[in-house]
Amino acid sequence: MSSSIKRPVTNVWSSRLLAGVAVLAVVHLLSGATWVASLAQLLLAGFLVLGWIRFSAMARMLALACVAVSFFALWRLPSPWIVLYEAANGFVFLAAFMTALAVLRLPAYRSRLIRRCGQSLLLQPPTWRYPMLSLGSTLFGIVLNFGVLNLFMSMIDKANTLGSAQGRVWLQEVRRRRMLLATLRGFTLAPLVSPLGIGVAVVLGNLEPLTWGELFPYVLASAVVLFLMGWACDQIAGPRPRASAAGSERPSLMPLVAFSLLLLALVLLVFALATMLSLRLPQAVVIGVPLGAWVWLAWQCRDIGHVGVWSATALLTRRLPDVLGGIGNEVVALGSGAYLGYLSVALLNPAQLDGMASLLIAAGNWLPALALLLIVVLAQIGVNPIISVTFLTSMVAQVGLEGVSLPLLAAAMLVGWSLTMVSSPFTAAMMIMSRFTGITAGQIGLRWNGAFLAASLMMAAVLFRLAS
Question: What are 233-239's contacts with CB under 8 Å, separation 24+?
């Protein structure tokens, strides 16, 4: 079957429009031209129209909510077009952000290093399997985003055979559940600690005085606590390995070391671009990540000739529709969340705005812990964390809280975002896990992750209150 049959014309054009949105977003960042931003918004509208039939029901609901709130803004606001333009710019930026991260998947899926890392992770002794899988999915999640879940779940099912469990079905099921949970919990740490993560992009984008250097110590400490909590829950829940299994030879971790260095080089490239071009870190990601992906692809094709430059360019051009064809739901979910969050703040009248400001000020040192709990609770009823975090950060930016540590508050929001990804049945990560396991997302969140969520929430709330 030819590629043209496999990829309908609408899918190809939808992917091209999304790529055009990303390119125009970069041009707008570098030039500041208003007409470029307007053209990017027009291409984004075309992408939403062409991709409509392939969007999930939830993505369509969010897109329709954006339309409804936009009409409401036209009716209520005195100068609605300026507000809608700024909100649409936020949508465009997140669409470009997700496109940039998706491009990185192409060289990653072709990489022999990635395959060697996967084999090394799955062959770890039982005692070290959780930390290795968890940390591995964190590292892979920085590069592959949601693709790491599909990749690791497939590898786990191939490695976790009935023969490796000595014919014991119950043991095979327990191993599968523990390895899948290690992967899921590790993946949810990626947006918490990665400067390339969507959560960091939203927080730093709305809280302009805050820098990654100020935020990083807080999110790193939070990620360590969540990792240790997950490992402890895994050790309590799982059967103890036999001495012979525990003493088996561990495979080399050198592929993981090499992969970590590769990620470090990519992060340094983003930081270098942010410094040279005087950009905010999330803005530098939109430029640096596709550039890094192209360099990585050229290195893989270096034996073909011309140092792999032309081969990498041709491969990237040919495979771009495949790479971008599967991220439509993610783009709509994240972009519409930012759009609705921005408009919700703009639609508050001065009295309501003062009331919200008074609540934030009254919360005082309890604000980080309360913000964390609020984000997690709202996610359980379908409010995407990007909406709640955008709303909270926009409010904080307008109020200008004194006496509350901005890095601590931002870290609390990101921890809440991370915990929603292992608990809320409405998140993309839980939907992927549910589709793969055949178990409902609600059961995974409550039955598999209930103890971890409860312990993490209590620990995080106490620590953030003490740190305040």
Answer: 233/451, 233/452, 233/455, 234/130, 234/178, 234/181, 234/182, 235/130, 237/178, 237/451, 238/174, 238/178, 239/171, 239/174
